[in-house]
Amino acid sequence: MGYRAAALALFVTFLIFHYADRFTITSVAKQVMDDFGVDRPQLGFVFTATLLLSAFLYPLWGYFYDKYSRRLLVSLTATIWGFTSLINALSRNFTEFLVTRISTAVDDAAPPGMSSLVLDYFEPSKRATALGLLKISAPLGAILGTVLPLSIISAGLPWRYSFYITGSIGVVTGILAFLFVKDVPRGSSEPELKGLLTRDVFKVKVSDLVKLLRNRSLLLLYLYGFLGQFPWAVIAFWIVTYMQTERGMSVQSVMLTMVIWLVSMAVGNVFSGYMGDLVYKRSIRGRAVYGAIVVVLAALFLYLAMRSRNDLLFLVFGALTAFLMPQPGPQVSAIWGDVTEPELRSSAASYQSFFETIGSAFGPWLTGLLSITMGLGEAILWISVVTWLSSFVFFTLLAIRIPVDAEALRKLMRARADMLAGASL
User: How is domain 2-182+207-424 classified at the CATH fold level?
Assistant: First the structure.
C-alpha cells in the first residue's frame, strides 16, 4: 500500500502542474486578445484546434501505453509538454501563438496512462476512491493555473511568465516520473489474478482494439463523453472572461471566486470516489446511477448560478455546481476497469478522451460565436445545461447495460486464472 499511495501522490502532483499549464490560457485570454489584437472566436479557435489535435493522437498514445512501458511514456509526455509550453511563451505574433499552442497538444497523453496504472495498483472495490484522488489534480491545477497568471498580471508582469514557469516544471516532472514510477503487470489487481502475474502475459494486439467499439457499456461512456465534456471546455475557457466583462468583477474577486469553486471541485472528486466505491459494493449499476443523478443536479445549480444577479448567490450556486461537475469522472474511470480487459484499458481511456475532446473542442468556439448575439453568460448556460441533460440519458442506459459487460469480464478473468494456475503446476 505504501508504494501505491506514493505513486498516486506523484501522479497527482504531476497532473496538477500539467492542468495548471492548460488552464493558464483561460486566465490570460483577455491579455492575449489585447496583445495580439484578436477577438473571442479567433482565440476560441486556438483552443478548439489544440483539442482536436490532441483528440486524434489519443488512440495512438493509448495503444502505446497498452503495449509499452507506461513509466517511460509518462516521462516522455511530461518532457514534451514542458518544452512546447516554453516555446509557446516565446510567440511574437498571433500566428506563432496559434502554431505553438497547437503543438502543446502532442504531449496531452499522460492521464490515460496514469489511470491505467492506477487500475492495476488498486482492486475493483477501491478504484473509484483512488481515481477520485487522482482527479483532484484537475481542480487544483486549475487553481494554480488561475492564481499564478492573475498574480503575475496583477504585479504588472507579462502573461508569458506563466508559461515559463509551468513549462520548466514540466521538464522536471518528466524526470521525476522516469526515476520513481514503476510498471506493474497489467491485470495484477484483478481478484481472480492476484498473485498469479509477475509479468505481462496478456498483451494488446491492434486487432483487439475493435473490441472497444463493440463493448456497449464503453460506447455509452463514449457518447456521454462526447456531450458531457462540453460544459467543462466552455466553462474552463470562458468563465473568467465572463466574470470580468459581463459581471464586472475585479481581478481579486475573480481569483477568490475561482479558488472557492475549484476547492469545491476538488472536494467533489474525493467525495465522488468514496461514493462510487460505496455504491459499487451494493450494485454493479451503482456508479452509473450515481453519474446520472449528479449531471442533472449540476445542470440545475449552473442555471441558478448564471441567473443570480447577486454576486454572493452566484458564488454559492457556482460552488455547488463545481462540487457536482467532476463527480461523473471517477465513476467513468472506474467503470473502464469493470468492463474492459486490463491490456486494453489505456486504449479505453484514450478512446474516452478522444470522444470527450472531439465533443468539447467545438464548445469554446461555438460559445464565442453565440456570445456575439446572445451574450457570453447565456451562451455558457445553455450549451452546458443541454449537454448535461443529454448525459443523463446515457448514464441511465449504462445502468441498464453494465451488468452484462461486467459479468463477461469476470468470466474472462476466471478463465485466465485457471489457465495461469494450470501452467504453474
Answer: Growth Hormone; Chain: A; (1.20.1250)
